[in-house]
UniProtKB/TrEMBL annotation:
Keyword DNA-binding: yes
GO MF, any single term: DNA-binding transcription factor activity
Name of protein: GntR family transcriptional regulator
Residue numbers spanned by region Disordered: 1-21
Keyword field: DNA-binding, Transcription, Transcription regulation
Pfam families noted in UniProt: GntR
PANTHER family named in the record: GLUCONATE OPERON TRANSCRIPTIONAL REPRESSOR (PTHR43537:SF24), TRANSCRIPTIONAL REGULATOR, GNTR FAMILY (PTHR43537)
Protein source organism: Streptomyces lacrimifluminis
InterPro entries: Tscrpt_reg_HTH_GntR, WH-like_DNA-bd_sf, WH_DNA-bd_sf
Amino acid sequence: MADALRSRIRTGELRPGQRMPTQARLAQEFGVERGAVRDALRILYAERLLTNVSKGSPATVAPDPGPVPTGPVAPPLPTIGALAPRVAAAFAAPHVAVDALCLTSVALTLAIGEPLRQIHAGRLNPARIDVRVLLPSRDIDLAFPAPVELADGSPAGASATGRLQRRWLTHRNAQGQVLRHNLLALRGTHGIDVRVSFRALPFTPPVQLYLLNGAEALFAYYTLKRSEAEIDHEQVEMYDAEGVRSTLFAFERGAGLRDSTFVEQSHLWFDALWETISSELVLTD
């Protein structure tokens, strides 16, 4: 939704100073809940494309929408809004290299959507795309999501833990399969040399890390929150991380010693995990 509305603003379909449609109308148009509408509007507000974003009245297109903040001078933003423009910029290179370490690949799968649209529209034309993704192994006990202990201090039980693990595994596999399918499809449609690889980690990553073309490192903490969800027709209280809403920090090679060192060390760390303690990962149900 944020991508579609951003495009309308950039092309002038929504003019500077014009009021946006109401949240109810946007929810109906895109077939989503109001919460998703508010998330999309907040992304565009963070990019300085909208003003007056509140629950009380429709947002307004900024008088002079500037470029989307990028690079190390950009303020930290939620992953859901900050990752996509950086990935799209990386896809302007002839050889695209994306490395990701995460709990699931949902944020990367969403972010890849924008450069895929630009490739299909003829605005981007990379010759080669290499994507490597490190995800937790299905054989470990995840640190999170994890069930909340009962009031008397006894464990919530293996049943809740098992349900959470199965839900995470289904989500991990589905997102990875979508990511791989969408990228590999470029071989047939555009003749692009695409390679997508997954490996499994023997631990739950406390952070998510994205490395773009050897030049950028994007980093976010997985901050745990208490939440509740219905799983197999039962309510389960859990500690979990909202990865797509985690604040993403950007570092760029050549933007000073600190940034360059962070990018370099992040690549060394990722390569070490990939080549040593990680194992083959097969995305099966």
